[in-house]
What we know:
By secondary structure, this protein is of the alpha+beta class. It has a single domain, classed as Jelly Rolls (Sandwich), CATH 2.60.120. It is built from 2 helices and 14 strands; from the N terminus they run H-E-E-E-E-E-E-E-E-E-E-E-E-E-E-H. It has helices at 2-15, 215-243, and strands spanning 35-37, 44-45, 50-52, 56-57, 62-66, 98-103, 112-116, 124-135, 143-151, 154-157, 161-163, 172-179, 185-194, 200-211. The strands form 3 sheets. It has a 6-stranded antiparallel beta sheet, with no helix packed on it. Helix 1 packs antiparallel against helix 2. The radius of gyration is 24 Å and the shape is globular. The model is unreliable at 1-17 and 217-226 (pLDDT under 50). Residues 1-21 form the signal peptide.
Amino acid sequence: MKKIAFAVAAMTVAAAAPASAANLNLVTNGGFESTTTTSSTGNFQIGNAGTVAGWTSTGGYNLLFNAANATTGNAAGTYAYTNKEKMWAANASSQGGNFLALDGDSTARGAVQQVINGLTIGQQYLLTFEWGAGQLQSRDGATTEQLLVGFGNDSFSTTILNNVSHGFTGWNTVSRTFTATSTSQVLSFLSIGTPNGLPPIATLDNVAMTAVPEPATWAMMLVGFAMVGATARYRRRNTKAAIA
């Protein structure tokens, strides 16, 4: 009887195993650590002086910085000659390392994006990321920043962040649930800032997207673990009784 109960419990847990896939990040290089560039500082304009694995830029002025030298290392690219293509202020996100800096000027902005594959139609997916608002040393003045985030045909806008001249707002964590309508969908981030010419910068890091487990799957897991626990308690009681 004990063997049967344990087998049933094991089968229940195994049947619920797909829930573990909910922890699988579907975003490639969500921390922007894998890059290719000849920039001496490691900071560069995406699509001009370097690439970020898994991501493309639809034009615009989008930069990659390493948090360790974001305020001192000039970013190679279109405006490198100014020697001011670096942040006035910035610190590392919770993940550390590299982050993106997306120009929100309406005359210079363009989305960064990647195709997310392996989706299940009708399945919910949780998107999380960290973002903030800052400014490059080539300009000064108070700015506002916002991110327009798209996933397939769905989209949403973050709250608007107000940034003081030469400042940085710090990092904010955002979570949003989407429902897949195709097996492959484009995930995109577009910086929208004001005023033009300063320029307003949105920072982005630690992007992740995971499947949300179905309620029935969670229920099966709970039942399975409960049965395993009950079997273990039954064994301990029988062992104590035998010793007594």
